[in-house]
Each structure stands twice: as structure tokens, then as C-alpha cells.
Design brief:
Length: 375
């Protein structure tokens, strides 16, 4: 089986999630600078090979609480937020300093759950992060803990990292934590627990292996890692879980020295895009289609202008719109290849007439099947 194991060396756009327990010393609450420097050396080596790297880092609360005298007890949400506010400055500074040793510029990006779910903000955040990557910077990303209230909070950076990966179409997500992967049972309790080097599919048995979230300030545990795997693999990305405690954990993963669990992508990028269409957009309008088109769509075909009987709302080319039947039933949603104004000119017409009607040759389909998700 080993020949099918993915390789970290193949990553082109990589998200690295770093857990608090790695970055912050449990006793002194200080950032473990030597470890961070070694990690930065790994990142610099990846970047030198042309890999785009974004880091999702935890640790703002763990670092900040010390400086506010909030140690030795469980914190209330507002205290965590206060701790994050002061800790985040120190975190960002530490990353800036350590990567500057390699001439690498960092950029701080703080996100809330809405920034990843709401289309406009999702696209804005995506554009910003992609621009930073294109300019050679390393985005240092964390949840915006100071404003994220409990109901609208990721709370754990495993899922945040997976969402960011989905947002920017990362091909690989690495979760560095204090365990070297997924085991058939909790290895601390069960001597028969077996390590799983590769997980092809997130079956209910795999989900059950995650067990309960652990106590303490690492908010994740295996439960949120499996949830992250669900997001990442559904988006066409590979994910790996590895123990990051050792020095230079990324190069150890590349050479195969470090053990890890790989989760393989569940879908090709096309399906990932469809998931984004289905789940992350607020439709800007709709088109009503005739019965022939209803059948064609159900058979997996694209929506042609000929099948459209009405266009509702104002939308631009590329916007997500609803597709309805004459009876008003929502059949699905997709990205329109034409603006509402152009679509109105095309309705009921054959694709061969498009150029004559609009004065330019656009796509034959109003919604291509690759851009269409049926309900
Ligand atoms: N955003 C939190 C912090 O920086 C960490 C969440 C987590 O532990 O995953 O402290």
C-alpha cells in the first residue's frame, strides 16, 4: 500500500495549523522560540521550492492569559477574548521575527466564522489571502477571538484551518498537534490501539475513533480534527495529522521520519466547487425553466437558454442564481454565464443565436452543468 501514500513534498498550496500546546510552553506560558525558529526554517525551505504556505496558528489565549494574570483557572469567554487580544500581538510578532530571519514577510489575518460562510466576505478574504500568497508573504491566520461570541465562534482552529483551506483551494492541510495521527482507539488507554497511516474515507467507524474531546486548553482533540478532515477532504484537499512536538516537524514529515495519518480527498475539485456553490452563496436572482429543461437537468445536462421561460432579479455574470420550475419549485442553484439583462434577451432562444442577439459569442449554456448543483 505504501506506494499510494501521499507525499507532503507534492504540496503546492499548503495550510499548516499549529496547536497551542506546541507553540506555548504549558508551564511558563511563553512562546517556545526555539521550536518556532525550527518550524520557520522548515517553512522557508518549502517556500524556497515555490510552495505557497499559510499558517493557521493557535496560542493567542494561551500566551495572553499570562500577561493579564489570568492563569491557574478556567477562563470565562470574555476573559479568553481579553487574553486573545493581548496574546495575538505577541504571536504575530514572534512569527514576524522568526520568518524575517529568512527574509519572509508575514501578514496577520483574523477571521470569524461569517468571513468564511458569507459569500462576499468569503470572496474578499479569499482574494486577500491569495494576493498575499502571490506576493510571497506567509499569512498568519487565527480566529478573531476578541469579537467572536460563543454562538458564532469556530472555537477551534482545526475547522478554521480546514475552512481557510477550502476557501483558497489549498491542496494540503497539515494539522500539527500533540498526537501523531488517528488510532483505532485512544492509545493512552488501549495498548491494542493501532495507528492508521491512511484514511481513504470518513466512515462512521472512523468518526467513532475520534472519541471525546480532551480537557485543558487545547480546544480541539480528535473530534475537531475529524470535522476538519470532513471539510478539507470534501473540498478536494488532502489532510494530515502529525505530532509537531519534535523540532523541524515538517521536514521530518517530508523525509518520512515522522509518523502521521493522511486523509485522502473525497472529491475532485469540481465537486468541491459545487459544494461551495451549494453551501456558500446567497442567490442574486433566479431563472424559471420549462418541463423539457427540468428533465434535461435531472439527466445531468447543462441549462440552455432555450429551456428558460423567465428571468427574475438582477444578477451579474458569475453570480449564483436559483433554478425554478414553472410551479415555483427550487430545482437547484448555479452560476450564471450571463447577466440578468443578457439572459432576458436569450430566453427561449437557441444557443446558435447568442452571438446575433448579444453581439458577442458567450457560452452556449446559461448555466453549465459544472456550475450547477441540483437540490
Ligand atoms: N483561537 C484560539 C487561540 O488562538 C485557539 C483555538 C484552538 O485552540 O484551536 O488561542
Amino acid at each position: 500500500m505504501s506506494h499510494v501514500l501521499p507525499r507532503l513534498a507534492d504540496a503546492r498550496r499548503l495550510i499548516i495549523k499549529i496547536g497551542s500546546a506546541l507553540l506555548v510552553d504549558g508551564k511558563t506560558h511563553q512562546i517556545r522560540r526555539e521550536w518556532l525558529d525550527a518550524l520557520a526554517d522548515d517553512v522557508a525551505a518549502l517556500k524556497a521550492r515555490g510552495v505557497e504556505v499559510a499558517i493557521v496558528t493557535s496560542g493567542s489565549i494561551a500566551v495572553g492569559r499570562e500577561h493579564l494574570g489570568l492563569t491557574g483557572r478556567v477562563l470565562k469567554l470574555e476573559e479568553k477574548q481579553a487574553a486573545a487580544a493581548t496574546g495575538q500581538i505577541r504571536l504575530a510578532h514572534a512569527y514576524q521575527e522568526t520568518l524575517a530571519r529568512h527574509g519572509i514577510t508575514v501578514a496577520q489575518v483574523l477571521l470569524t466564522i461569517d468571513d468564511t460562510e458569507e459569500r462576499r466576505r468569503h470572496l474578499n478574504a479569499r482574494a486577500t489571502i491569495s494576493t498575499l500568497l502571490g506576493l510571497g508573504a506567509v499569512p498568519i491566520i487565527n480566529e478573531n477571538d476578541t469579537v467572536a461570541t460563543s454562538e458564532i465562534r469556530f472555537g477551534d482552529n482545526d475547522r478554521l484551518a480546514a475552512r481557510v483551506g477550502q476557501m483558497i483551494s489549498a491542496d494540503t492541510l497539515v494539522l500539527l498537534s500533540d498526537i501523531d495521527g488517528l488510532y483505532t482507539a485512544d492509545p493512552r488507554k488501549d495498548p491494542d490501539a493501532r495507528h492508521l497511516p491512511v484514511i481513504q474515507m470518513l466512515t462512521p467507524e472512523i468518526e467513532a475513533m475520534a472519541g471525546e474531546p480532551p480537557p485543558g486548553y487545547s480546544s480541539g482533540g480528535m473530534v475537531t480534527k475529524i470535522a476538519a478532515a470532513r471539510i478539507a477532504t470534501a473540498a478536494g484537499s488532502r489532510m494530515l495529522i502529525a505530532n509537531g512536538h519534535r523540532m523541524n516537524p515538517l521536514s521530518a514529515l517530508e523525509t518520512g521520519e515522522a509518523k502521521c495519518s493522511w486523509f485522502l480527498p473525497q472529491a475532485n475539485p469540481l465537486t468541491a466547487r459545487k459544494r461551495w456553490i451549494a453551501g456558500h452563496v446567497s442567490p442574486a436572482g433566479s431563472v424559471v425553466v420549462d418541463d423539457g429543461a427540468v428533465k434535461a437537468l435531472a439527466a445531468g445536462k447543462s441549462l440552455l437558454p432555450a429551456g428558460v421561460v423567465a428571468v427574475e432579479g438582477g444578477f451579474e455574470r458569475g453570480d449564483a442564481i436559483l433554478v425554478r420550475s414553472r410551479s415555483g419549485q427550487v430545482l437547484g442553484r448555479g452560476l450564471s454565464a450571463y447577466s440578468a439583462a443578457d439572459a432576458r434577451l436569450l430566453l427561449g432562444r437557441r444557443s446558435g443565436e447568442i452571438e446575433g442577439l448579444l453581439g458577442y459569442r458567450g457560452r452556449d449554456e446559461l448555466i453549465h452543468r459544472d456550475d450547477l448543483v441540483l437540490d
